[in-house]
Design a protein that fits this description.
The protein is α+β, with helices and mostly antiparallel strands. It has helices at 9-14, 42-55, 57-95, 119-123, 165-169, 193-199, 238-244, 263-274, 287-330, 332-340, 345-381, 390-416, 420-424, and strands spanning 99-104, 129-137, 142-143, 157-161, 173-176, 188-191, 207-210, 213-221, 233-237, 253-258, 282-285. It is built from 13 helices and 11 strands. The protein starts with 8 loop residues before the first helix and ends with a helix.
Length: 427
């Protein structure tokens, strides 16, 4: 007895001196016998993360909606662009890329040049050339009747056309029939798709006032992708144009089909063949290149729209982060209780990060479905093939997971730093 207090053997046994106490007895698994926080299995993480989502459905819907709109916008833009590209490829496969267009350029004095009347016959002598057809510009105009003022042309042209024009340009008759040897010499006319729409004339047999006399409509063309200038034209036979419209016989455009492997070689010799005296006044173009250039322009617009979709996705991520911050503030008692029961800081962080990831994943999946439906609806309305690249869907979902992890990181760290007493005592 040194301090006036008698210590019994029992007391010394129940409260051993920490400096002289033996090491704690280790369990069979090598542990030290102290209580440890249970590990969270993946199923437990998902269950904990979904708890906050189930209890606040409206807030979850609004937050996920922002993510869904961003992902849907990105997938719809990529899908519509891909569908448009597939349609262009399909058209080119059907129409061919071996069509060349020969047209007069300008002379040295700046005046419009003129192809010789023998241009078609000379081009036809090039061995790899498969088809040659021409149109010739006239001074005539087409009207529904003779009472319309002459100046009101409706931007419609009247062209002389050979009977072999339609197969050369890959055109198709929508209504009626095409010019043939029987109608080539008589006042018969075929309207392009746009011309028929502007004149509001579609029925074969209708009379049209053309070049100061009546012509009979015998057919209406479908749109011609490789020769769009024909869409807004009234086409009459080559011989009829000479007879009734004072056509001089000079072709204004010559369409040339060549062997696929020889297109470049034919293109090189066309100027000198079409106009041997002045090859520099001949312009050669490839209509399929125009379609490809248009697709490139649309691709640039696609990049801009993708940027806008990314901004929408970022805004949705900010909404998720805001939702998680509010969730941490509202659930302080829950966090304090879990910490008092032994939950570690890492488990608290895992809970809120998983909740943010699940929220973003819901929005990402919904946006993927919505973007696919938008693409399919637009493609069907335009009669395009529906194309939604797999990489776009994967990238959309992956981006939402990244945004969800970033948006939930700060609230999760903030929640894990709350001590049990601080959390249970309220804000």
């Amino acid at each position: 007895m040194t301090d006036g207090v008698t210590r019994s053997p029992v007391a010394r046994e129940e409260f051993p001196d920490p400096h002289t106490a033996p090491a704690p007895v280790r369990g069979p698994g090598g542990g030290d016998g102290r209580l440890r926080a249970a590990r969270l299995r993946p199923a437990d993480v998902v269950r904990l993360g979904s708890t906050g989502l189930r209890t606040r459905p409206l807030r979850v819907f609004l937050s996920a909606l922002g993510i869904a709109i961003g992902v849907a916008a990105m997938i719809a833009v990529v899908g519509i662009s891909g569908s448009g590209q597939a349609e262009v490829d399909r058209r080119l496969d059907a129409l061919g890329t071996n069509l060349l267009r020969v047209a007069p350029g300008e002379s040295l004095t700046g005046e419009k040049a003129e192809l010789p009347t023998e241009a078609v016959a000379m081009i036809r002598r090039i061995p790899p050339v498969e088809q040659v057809a021409a149109t010739g510009a006239t001074e005539a105009h087409v009207y529904r009747n003779e009472h319309i003022a002459l100046g009101r042309t409706g931007s419609l042209t009247v062209l002389a056309a050979g009977t072999d024009l339609l197969p050369a340009v890959g055109g198709r008759i929508g209504t009626g029939r095409w010019l043939d040897s029987a109608t080539d010499e008589y006042p018969a006319v075929v309207l392009g798709a746009t011309a028929a729409q502007r004149l509001d004339v579609y029925t074969p047999g209708t009379r049209l006032w053309l070049g100061g006399r009546w012509f009979s409509l015998i057919g209406v063309l479908d749109p011609v992708p490789l020769a769009p200038e024909l869409d807004s034209a009234a086409l009459v036979g080559w011989s009829a144009a000479r007879t009734y419209l004072d056509f001089d016989g000079h072709p204004s455009t010559v369409y040339v089909r060549a062997e696929d492997s020889q297109v470049t070689a034919v293109r090189a010799v066309l100027p000198g063949t079409a106009y041997p005296e002045k090859p520099g006044e001949v312009r050669i173009s490839r209509p399929s290149d125009a379609l490809a250039a248009r697709e490139a322009t649309e691709s640039a617009l696609t990049g801009l729209l993708l940027g806008l979709g990314g901004v929408a996705l970022l805004v949705g991520g900010v909404g998720v982060g805001n939702t998680m911050v509010i969730s941490v503030l509202e659930r302080r008692p829950e966090i304090g209780l879990r910490r008092a029961l032994g939950a570690t800081k890492g488990q608290i962080r895992t809970q809120f990060v998983s909740e943010s990831l699940l929220l973003s994943l819901i929005g990402g999946l919904a946006g993927t479905v919505l973007g696919t439906l938008i693409t399919a609806g637009y493609a069907l309305s335009r009669d395009w093939p529906t194309v939604v690249p797999v990489w776009a869907s994967v990238a959309g979902i992956a981006s939402t997971l990244v945004i969800g992890a970033v948006a939930g990181l700060y609230p999760a760290v903030r929640a894990s730093r709350l001590s049990p007493t601080q959390a249970l005592s309220g804000p």
